[in-house]
Amino acid sequence: LEEAAQAAKDSLKAVQKSADAAATSAQAGQAALALNRRSLILSNQPNVVAFNSRLSQQLAAGTAPEVNTQIANLGKGMASKLQNRGWIFISSKRTFSYTTVNPPASVTDLPAGGGNLLNLALKLPFNLSQEMVTSIDRGTSTVYAYGLSEYYDNTLEKPRKSTLHWCIYYDPTKTDKLPLVVCPEHNYTSIE
Q1: pTM
Q2: Which of 24, 145, 156, 177 could form an S-S bond across to 88 if both were Cys, CB 3.0 to 4.6 Å?
Q3: 123 DSSP β-pair partners
Q4: Do residues 87 and 122 make contact, with C-beta atoms less than 8 angstroms apart?
Q5: How far is CA 165 from the centre of its chain?
Q6: What is the pLDDT of residues 51-103, one digit of tens each?
Q7: Who contacts 145 (Cβ-Cβ below 8 Å, separation ≥6)?
C-alpha cells in the first residue's frame, strides 16, 4: 500500500511538472505571438513625405509664384484616407495657421513605394510687385509654403492617424532659383 501511495505521489508530481511546463510553453508562445504581431505592425507602417518642392518659374514682378511639391509614401504599408492641404505666403517671417482650403482636400489611399507620387500645386493668389521681388531678393521677405498630410495606417491594430507637417521656402542665395529649401521648423510627423 505504501508503494502504491508513493507511486501515486510521484505520478502527481510528474503531472504537476508537466502542467507547469505546458503553462511556461503557453506563456512563451503568447510572448512570441505578441512579438510577431508587433513586428508585422511595424513592417506595415506608412511613411508619407513631402519632397522635390520647386517653383514653376523664377520669381518676377507681375507673376504669381506657384510651388509644386511631391507627396510620396516611402513606408511599407498603405497610407489610407490621405488628405493633403497646403498654403503659400510671402512674409517677413514664417507663421503657420491652418485656414480652410478651397477646394477641400481630396481623400485617397497612397500605396507604399516611391513610384506612386501625388503632386500638390500651390499658387499665391496675387501677382508679385517689383517691391516684393526686391524684398525677397534682399532676404527681408520670403516666399514659403507649408502643409499637412493626414493619413491612417492599416495595421492589425486600431488604425492610427498620422499627420506630416512640412514647410519649404525660397532661398535667394541659391544659384538654382527653382528648388525650394526645407524649413528648419514645421517638419515632423505626429501620431495620434
Answers
A1: 0.78
A2: 145
A3: 66
A4: yes
A5: 8
A6: 999 999 999 999 999 999 999 999 988 999 999 999 999 999 999 999 888 77
A7: 53, 67, 69, 86, 87, 88, 89, 122, 167, 168, 169, 180
